[in-house]
Structures are given as structure tokens and as C-alpha cells.
Write a structure and sequence with these properties.
5-stranded parallel β-sheet; 562 residues; Rossmann fold; single chain; alpha/beta; 44% helix; 17 strands; 3 domains
Length: 562
């Protein structure tokens, strides 16, 4: 099929498009994937139409919370349950009179502790969002906040809203504990394809977004990209060709740029593309948040997409850069949005383009086969912690910088020092590879700026792409492509010492810090077990100072290579 897709006629592609709109599971079956498995994941194709009738219920609920004077909504979720709400919260902002929306998709103790102050508790409501109802992180967060609310109310369930599939443990929990409201989502929609279902629309409505307009734009895109529109004049067909043909030609580093008001769309798109396509050593590696550079520093495996917003205060911020890229013969695709609510059409467009890109490389866009390995490793580590009181990890101390670190087996078999380990990492990375900075740290602009500088250094000195993700968020997003996608990668996992003792979470026998640290160590072991090159850096409790010190070590190591 690899060569066949490039050589398909327009008529043959039109047939594929019709099969898609008819929900034909045969487009992705094979390799032990059954039609039943695929059919159970295709509900997103027409969700914009089917959910239209439920919008009055959603908006009525949102208005009721506004009338009650609720000031803050805290969403407890991970991956597909949190990235769409995060995208909408940053793009639409909070309308006057509506509550602020805080997305809590981390086990970092500082972030969790600072999400809600004690004097805010009476005017806060929590959304527990989980398709399966069994995802560890939101269950940990629920237990944390349930204890806090139980201390001030005899009816703590009235503080909580559930979004889940029918029949899940969360649905049962919500009924048993008399949650304020439960939204049961269509079970045939996977997490990363759920942005236009209850998982995305309910949080968006709660901050006053016009979800009717959002859905109307999505339906308009469905009509524009319908099977009645010939492939070569179809907006979806054009984007599918751009992505699929370049991917089949080994251009797999998809660099995504946006105007500032819609930057968070790239985070949602990153998960959609990485988790859908990154399997069997194939797929796209989405590059998000990377600074621009001279085209000569980019490898030949790059392709670029720019989402431009007509109403942006910085409209066309990348226009000159795009011209430079085109002059240097890089593949570039530009999409222009009329306004921020045009995000609804882009969600549909990119979902279609993503599943067709997966068709072109013969991978199932709806599973995540390599995600479980990190979850399993984390579970084993936490079990050992409960038995011994310690996380089983042996960290080295660099004799020069005094930093604590641990190299994977492929990088060092004896003490060489941190600079040498980083040089080993870079020396076996091809220019078409990439480096991933995976930070188990609090969400922070300064942290992203420091890591951004390190990404710039690596790209300039080593000529390879870079990605950055917060842990454990990335485990439910790009973690799939890190393990199942192109293997030419090196990873730097960053953790920090705890600055104080944290109490154990009820029902988990471990504190938030221990859970987060176990997730980092678990992913290190998962990446190492499949032959990825990875370094674990353990910073002091003053992690920003430690991060700056590590940046100097990394810069020296990268420049020593040349």
C-alpha cells in the first residue's frame, strides 16, 4: 500500500473518501485488527451532527453554575480527556461572569496543591473526566480533592461532575456518590477523537464559549469535505495528500506553527497525530513549540504546517519564515482560520487527514499499543515502594557538575560523567533523529523557556529536531510515538528532589511526589527496555536553578561534538 497510495488515481481516492464517510472499517483492518474493533472507534465521524441536539442541556447546565456564582472549575483528566478542554480554555478564554477553567492533568504535588486554595473550595466544582473511568492520574486527583471536600461538606458528591462512557467505574462512582451531574459520552469515540463530544464541549460551555458556533463550523467542514466533493478539490483531500505523500517519502518530522491566539491547538494536534500514527517504527513525530531557525539547519525529513488566524493581533507572524522554507524547497502547508471558532472545522479536518495518513502507512489510527509498557513499569515500581518505602532507582553523581543522573544501558556501562553521557547520546543520533526533553516538573513559563534554549542548542549544534513534554501528560499524548514510532531518538527525562514530605493519597499508599517520580522512573525503564537511548537527570529541590546548571552542561556537551 505504501507505493500504491502515491499512485492512486483521483477516482480511486474518491472511492476511499466515500468509504470513510460510510464508516467502512475495512480501511484500517488487517494485522489482527478486526472490523468490530474499528467500528467501536468511528463515532467521532458524525459526532458534530449527533451531539447538536444535546447542546441546550449543556448550556443550561453551564448557565446554572454561573447563576450559582461558581468561580472555578477544575478538570481532573489526562490525554484525550484533558487536551481538548485545555485547548478550548486557552483559545476561548473565560467569558465575563463564567467560572475560570483549570486543567489538572498532572500528578505534580506543587501544581495540585496550588490548583485550589482552602478559601476557594466553596465556590469550586470539579470535573472528573475519563473515558474508561480507570485512568490512574484522575483517580488519584479525585481521591485528593474528595478528602478535602468531605472535610467541609456532608454531601461532597455535589461538588463533582463526571464525563465518562456508560457502564464505567466512574459512572458507577458518580451514581453511588450522587455527583452533581454526569454526562455519558458515546462509547464509540476514542479519547483523542473526542474534542467535539461531551469531553470537549462541556468544559468549553462552562467558561461561556459559544459551542453552537463551534459545532456549526465543524458541520460546515463535514459538508465541505464530504464524499460528494471530488478529491482534488476537496480541502481534506489536499491536506491528506500533503501529509501522506511526504510521510511515505520519509518526511516524518511534522513541524506545527500557529498564530499566538491558537497556540494550544498545536498541543491537541500533537496528541492526535503522534498517538494515531506512531506505530511499528512508522508515523509522524510532531514538533511543537520549537523556535524558528535558518532553513539550512533543518534536516531533509522536515515538513511544516502553519495555521494562520485572520483575526490575530500578530497575523502572519511566520509569513517571512514560510517564504524562506519554500525557497529552500521544504514542504510547507498553510491553513487560514476565519476566527477562533473556526477551530471547530480544523478539528474535523485534522481528524480526517490523520486517519488517512495512517491508512497510507497501514497502521491502526485508533489504538495505542505501546502506551501500556510505561503504565506496567510504573505499577511495578509503586508496588516495590509500598513494600520497601523506596523507589528502586540507582542514580549516579557526576564528579564535575555534582548533578545526579542515570544513563540507559545503551549509553554507558560504567561511570563516565554526565558530559560524556550526553556526548554519547548525541554521537549516535542521526540528523534525521530527534531529542525529547521530558520534564516531570511543575508547569511553568520559565521552565519552558530554559528547556526551549536547550532545544535551540541541540538543533543548531546537532542538526536534529527536538520535542518537549511535561510528565505524566506526555505519557497519554506523545508517549506512543516515542515508543512505537521512528526509533532514531534520544530522550532526557528530568525530575527533581521533593522539597518537603507529602502525605499519601488515600487508596494509593503513596504521595503525589512518589507517584510522579515512579512514573518518570517507569518511563525510563520502558524506553530502555525497547532500546531507546535515554538519560535521567535528577535536579535538586530548587529545580529551576538545577535546570539552568544542566543547560550549561548540555550546551558544553553539544558543542564539544563539533
Amino acid at each position: 500500500m505504501y507505493k500504491n497510495f502515491i499512485n492512486l488515481s483521483e477516482e480511486e481516492k474518491n472511492v476511499l473518501l466515500k468509504r470513510f464517510w460510510d464508516k467502512d472499517p475495512g480501511l484500517w483492518t488487517g494485522n489482527n485488527v478486526s472490523e468490530k474493533d474499528i467500528l467501536s472507534r468511528l463515532g467521532w465521524i458524525d459526532i458534530a451532527r449527533t451531539i447538536k441536539n444535546t447542546i441546550p442541556e449543556i448550556t443550561e447546565f453551564a448557565d446554572s453554575l454561573k447563576t450559582q456564582g461558581i468561580k472555578k472549575i477544575v478538570l481532573l483528566g489526562m490525554g484525550g480527556s484533558s487536551l481538548a478542554p485545555l485547548m478550548f480554555s486557552r483559545i476561548f478564554r473565560t467569558e465575563e461572569g463564567f467560572p475560570e477553567l483549570v486543567i489538572l492533568d498532572t500528578t505534580d504535588p506543587e501544581v495540585v496543591e496550588n490548583a485550589v486554595s482552602e478559601d476557594e473550595l466553596q465556590q469550586v466544582r470539579f470535573i472528573f473526566a475519563s473515558k474508561s473511568g480507570s485512568t490512574v492520574e484522575p483517580n488519584v486527583l479525585f481521591s485528593y480533592f474528595w478528602e478535602k471536600i468531605s472535610a467541609i461538606s456532608g454531601e461532597p458528591g455535589s461538588w463533582f461532575i463526571a464525563i465518562t462512557d456508560p457502564g464505567t467505574p466512574l459512572a458507577e462512582l458518580a451514581e453511588k456518590n450522587r455527583f452533581l451531574k454526569t454526562f455519558l459520552n458515546s462509547p464509540d469515540i476514542g479519547g483523542r477523537y473526542s474534542a467535539l463530544s461531551y469531553f470537549g464541549l462541556v468544559p468549553a460551555a462552562l467558561i461561556g464559549a459559544d459551542i453552537n458556533k463551534l459545532i456549526d463550523n465543524a458541520i460546515k467542514m463535514m459538508d465541505t469535505a464530504s464524499a460528494s466533493t471530488s478529491w482534488n478539490s476537496n480541502i481534506a483531500g489536499k491536506l491528506i495528500d500533503f501529509l501522506s505523500i511526504n510521510l511515505l517519502r520519509s518526511k516524518d518530522k511534522l513541524t506545527i506553527m500557529t498564530d499566538p491566539e491558537i497556540e494550544s491547538f498545536a498541543l491537541w494536534l500533537e496528541q492526535l497525530i503522534a498517538e494515531s500514527s506512531g506505530k511499528e517504527t512508522l508515523g509522524f513525530v510532531p514538533i511543537v513549540g520549537e523556535s524558528t531557525g535558518i532553513p539550512g539547519y533543518y534536516g531533509g525529513e522536515r515538513l511544516f504546517v502553519y495555521l494562520r488566524l485572520k483575526t490575530s493581533s500578530d497575523h502572519g507572524r511566520y509569513n517571512d519564515f514560510i517564504k524562506e522554507l519554500r525557497d529552500a524547497d521544504f514542504p510547507v502547508y498553510v491553513l487560514e482560520l476565519e476566527d477562533i471558532y473556526d477551530i471547530g472545522s480544523q478539528i474535523i479536518l485534522w481528524e480526517i487527514a490523520t486517519v488517512f495518513s495512517c491508512y497510507a502507512i497501514e497502521v491502526n489510527p485508533f489504538d495505542e499499543p505501546d502506551v501500556m509498557v510505561a503504565k506496567t513499569k510504573t505499577g511495578e515500581i509503586l508496588e516495590k515502594f509500598r513494600e520497601t518505602g523506596k523507589i528502586p532507582v540507582n542514580l549516579w553523581v557526576d564528579p564535575q557538575s555534582k548533578m545526579m543522573f542515570r544513563p540507559s544501558d545503551l549509553l554507558a556501562s560504567s561511570m563516565k560523567g554526565l558530559t560524556r553521557t550526553l556526548r554519547d547520546l548525541f554521537s549516535i543520533l542521526p540528523t534525521w533523529g530527534y531529542v525529547g526533553f521530558l520534564a516531570y516538573l511543575p508547569y511553568d513559563d520559565e521552565t519552558e523557556e530554559i528547556i526551549g534554549e536547550m532545544r535551540h542548542i541541540v538543533r543548531q549544534e546537532q542538526g536534529c529536531a527536538t520535542v518537549m513534554g511535561y510528565g505524566p501528560r506526555y505519557l497519554h499524548s506523545t508517549g506512543q510515538v516515542f515508543k512505537g514510532g521512528p526509533a532514531s531518538a534520544g530522550f532526557i527525562i528530568i525530575t527533581r528532589k521533593r522539597k518537603k514530605d507529602y502525605p499519601p493519597i488515600k487508596g494509593f499508599d503513596a504521595s503525589l511526589w512518589h507517584i510522579q517520580f515512579a512514573q518518570a522512573v517507569g518511563d525510563f525503564e520502558a524506553l530502555q527496555s525497547i532500546g531507546r537511548r535515554v538519560v535521567h537527570i535528577h535536579l535538586p529541590a530548587d529545580y529551576k536553578l538545577g535546570l539552568k546548571s544542566f543547560s550549561k552542561v548540555l550546551s558544553r556537551a553539544a558543542r564539544l561534538m563539533n
